[in-house]
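pls design
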């Protein structure tokens, strides 16, 4: 389930979350995006820091998707296979190589991270 897109100014921080369904009868993994931070590099690229927690009783594997949408420009998407142990959380980083024309002129973007269903 995808819960929201957060609009960021360059260098801002935001929070979004999403969760995998858990079979209540058997337990299992319960992965959720709990935090997204964003910063721009000196070269105008965007780096996302993403926190994923697993509240389930088994390790969980999924595909983490990060997106940066430059206002009036392109949308950049990355996918990364992740695994998080039971009852723990992991931090993941995604760096987006923004086209130089957009990195110099784009002062606003939206950033989102979610788990593929």
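designed seq:
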């Amino acid at each position: 389930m995808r819960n929201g897109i957060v609009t960021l100014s360059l260098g801002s921080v935001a929070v979004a979350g999403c969760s995998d369904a858990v079979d209540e009868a058997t337990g299992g993994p319960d992965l959720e995006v709990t935090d997204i931070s964003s910063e721009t590099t000196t070269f105008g690229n965007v780096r996302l820091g993403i926190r994923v927690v697993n509240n389930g009783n088994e390790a969980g594997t999924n595909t983490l998707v990060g997106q940066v949408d430059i206002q009036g420009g392109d949308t950049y998407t990355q996918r990364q296979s992740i695994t998080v142990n039971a009852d723990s959380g992991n931090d993941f980083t995604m760096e987006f190589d923004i086209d130089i024309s957009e990195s110099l002129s784009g002062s606003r973007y939206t950033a989102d991270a979610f788990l593929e269903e």
